[in-house]
Amino acid sequence: MDVKPFEGKLAFVTGAARGIGKAIALTLADRGARVVVIDQILDAASETANECGNGSVAMKLDVSDSSKVNNAVSEIVEQFGQIHILVNNAGINRDAMLHKMTDAQWSQVIAVDLSAVFYTCRAVGSHMREMKYGRIVNVASASWMGNIGQTNYAAAKGGVVSLTRSISKELAFKNVTANAICPGFIETDMTRAMPQHLYDAQLAKIPLKRVGQPNDVAKLVAFLASDDAAYLTGEVINIGGGYKL
Q1: Mean pLDDT of 104-119
Q2: Which residues pair with 182 in a beta bridge?
Q3: What pLDDT is recorded for position 2?
Q4: Overall pTM > 0.90
Q5: Three-class SS of residue 86?
Q6: Span 10-186+214-234: which CATH code?
């Protein structure tokens, strides 16, 4: 039997044109969801939406701009009626050691990796409150515990964890859950571009002895977005094969 737990549901996924975000979009679509593929790169987002099928659509959106986020959410609700699932996956890196990190490197990462999560949670969460249903999954990182050369990124992802825990308490009585996931070392364009010795050093930290795949993360997101996880909220879940920084 072909089970489609997200049949008739709409998922709003940021940073979904490629990598982990694309895997999330495709997994949700495979289980029946119509996906709004959000990204800055419209051509790639459109390709992902076409692969998703189910009437999925692509939207170019700067998620670090609160007014644009508000307008996008209003447009989607007007067009499709409801947003049942929100996945905040969009993120950037601007790594540098503390003494070399510029104001721009700090503020760019905070804007995309933290402020954008707040903007989308506020806009979509308000809609979910009204319909008394929703699943929010925020993609943080193992780096939220702190990592050399990632003061900005770690601060942003730590903020995502705290934000998620806070909104889970605010939204629970409206039947809206919110959870954060913390991927470890995952095979993406960014990790594939690493020098081999650094790649091998990260791999050596993983007890399961393999690099994670985007689909590993996507399957966890799909579980948290499903009714099987209806009694799970405010949690922070590591997914890294036992990886610890």
Answers
A1: 98
A2: 238
A3: 67
A4: yes
A5: strand
A6: 3.40.50.720
Residue at token pair 């990632």: 150
Angle between helices 19-30 and 42-52 (to 10 degrees): 30
CA gap 108, 114 in Å, rounded: 10
Q: Measuring CA to CA, how many Å separate 220 from each of 170, 217, 242, 244?
A: 23, 5, 15, 19
SS3 of 88, please? strand
Scan for tokens 């909220």, then name that residue.
233
Cα–Cα distances in angstroms (integers) from residue 96 to residues 30, 110, 117, 197, in the given order: 38, 14, 23, 19
Choosing from 119, 153, 199, 231, which is the catalytic residue? 153
Task: Render pLDDT for 195-218 as a digit per residue (tens, 0 to 9).
Answer: 899 899 999 999 999 999 999 999
Whether 153 is catalytic: yes
Model pLDDT, residue 212: 96
